[in-house]
Each structure stands twice: as C-alpha cells, then as structure tokens.
Amino acid sequence: MQAALIIFEGMTSLDFIGFYDPVTRLKTMGFRPDFQWRFCALQPRISDDRGLGLIPDYVAAPLDGFDLLFIPGGFATRSLQHNQEMLAWLKTAAPVPLKTSVCTGALLLGAAGFLAGKRATTHPKALQELVPYCRVVPGVRVVDDGKVITAGGVAASLDLGLYVVERLAGPEARAKIAAQMDYPYR
Amino acid sequence: MQAALIIFEGMTSLDFIGFYDPVTRLKTMGFRPDFQWRFCALQPRISDDRGLGLIPDYVAAPLDGFDLLFIPGGFATRSLQHNQEMLAWLKTAAPVPLKTSVCTGALLLGAAGFLAGKRATTHPKALQELVPYCRVVPGVRVVDDGKVITAGGVAASLDLGLYVVERLAGPEARAKIAAQMDYPYR
Questions:
Q1: CB distance A57–B57 less than 8 Å?
Q2: What is the ipTM of this complex?
Q3: In sequence order, what DSSP letters do the residues of B112-142 get, joined into one string?
C-alpha cells in the first residue's frame, strides 16, 4: 500500500498534515505495516502559503505506481488548475485506484479529469469553483464516491484522514488512532 | 508581535501545524497585521517523526527577543528533555512573555524551568511524565495559567491555536478564523 502525498508551492499545510498524521499512524501504530508514503512534488523544495519550507522525496516522477493519491488545497490551486505542467504530472496518477483531496485540492483532482461524473466537495467558500468538474455536494465534511473521496476545508483534513483509516483498517483502528491523536470529534 | 515557532528532529508535525495555521491567519486575514513568525530550530534542516523534511529560517540563535514561544510535541521530547544543548537554547526564551506548548512539548517547557509553580497539561497518556515539572491538569484541552498556556495531545493544537487567536485578537477573530479553517468544534 503506497500513498502518493502531493505537496506544492503555496499549499495550506494543515490541509496536508491533518490527513498525513492519521493515515501514517496506520503503519506507526501497527494496523497496516505495509502502508508506505512518499512526499511528491514537481520541485525539489516547496514553500507553503505562509513560508514554511518542505522537502519532498519523490520529485517530478510518474505517479502511476501508487495505490492512493492525496492532494491538499490552498489558494495556489486557483492558478494550478490551469497549469499544464502540473496537470500533465497529476494525470500520470490516472491508474491510482483511490484518489483523495482536502479543500481546494478538489479543483486539481477535477482539472486532471478525475472527478468526471463523480460527487465531490471542497471548502465551503469554493463550492462554485468546483461546479465545472463534478456534482458538488455541500454541507458535509467527507464525500465518498467510491474511487474518489473528497473533504471540506482545511481542518476537514483530519476527518478525511480518519475516514480513510477506517476504510483501510476498520473502525477499531480509527477509534484507536483518533484517541492517540486526542481528537474526540466526528 | 513576533512568534518563535520551535521545530525539532522527531517532532509530530500535526502538533505544530495545528497551532501554526490559526495563529498565522491573524496576519493573513488582517486581524493582527503586526503578527510575524519564525521557524526556529537548532539544525538547518529537521525531519519530523514520520520522515517529512522541514526547513527552519532561524537556526541556533537566541530566543529572547520574541513575544510568543510555541513548542510542539512528539516522542523525541522524552530524550530532548534531558538534552543540555536543547535546554540551554530553550532557556534563552526566559524573557518571552507568553509561552505555549502542545502535547509533550510541555515536557520541554518544564525541563527549561518555565512551568515551575504553574498549572499545565499534555497528551492524556503523558500526564505522569509532566508531574515532576508542575501542577498537572488532566481532562481539558487547553490550560491557561497566564504567562503559560498548554494543550492536550496532537489535535488539541488546533484548539490551542484558536485559543491564542482569541486572546490576541478577540472572539470575533476566533470565530472568523475557525470558519475559514472549516473547524466547527470547540
């Protein structure tokens, strides 16, 4: 089980880390010892939307061999959804069987063609921007359309991560990981 | 208003990012245009507890000129609380008027001497480890002892960040930032 965790210049780090924390506990807490992940980007170093520098370990390489794709959001998605280099790279993930996003990461899933005919959501203030790509579902934190799972804004990343944990390892794993995260909400 | 945001080898990134996101919105959303932050570390590059590389912009320099100190947690705190280089560095923050931590970051606040006579909390499973340093408060997500504010485990970082937002900019700022974060809990 190999996860491609996408990071990009101008992303919102909480979108990313809120998902990364619970899903990587699948391995560190022993529920899915086979769970592995790479930090994937087009550049060898990126900065988030508030200046934090992050270092990917899988740079500008094809995404077709992964089992899970995750894309965070951030204001930069508004231009990246029209960036041909970014879209060509994301499209290499077409064979990935499970694709996920938080917040406006859904715009990138949509621009890459992965939301056609699907139900999906995004940040509550960005719902209209997602309309060209799919059937938009407002008012819920996580929308599961089988091969594509999308979440609401920023902090919904934690809920998406725990949702994916449950799908991959069951409700007991979810409960124990949420307890270790000290996250009582759902 | 200058915040020293500490990062260290082996930290838990969600402890850090869950605080960093709401407090930096004080500036990006215009509530406190004077709010600034540095990513402070002892090394020029650090890796979190699951392999993500982060780049500080304030390295091995004194912390005495800041207005706010923030320390995240992670398993590495168990050894760092006895690391003399780390403690000597953290002690340079003694004059900082507001000191904060999430999760086992409280062990570092304690080891640096900043919790003497204070009420504080940490991860629910680490409460006993904090006993040598202070009066431990279990069962609440944020403990405010005036000049020191501590929070529970990992995801309590979001609650601490929003608590500090309210203290620095009032309840309306908190409500608007929480809405922009799509975080309905408190």
A1: no
A2: 0.97
A3: TTTTTT-EE---GGGHHHHGGGSEE--S-SE
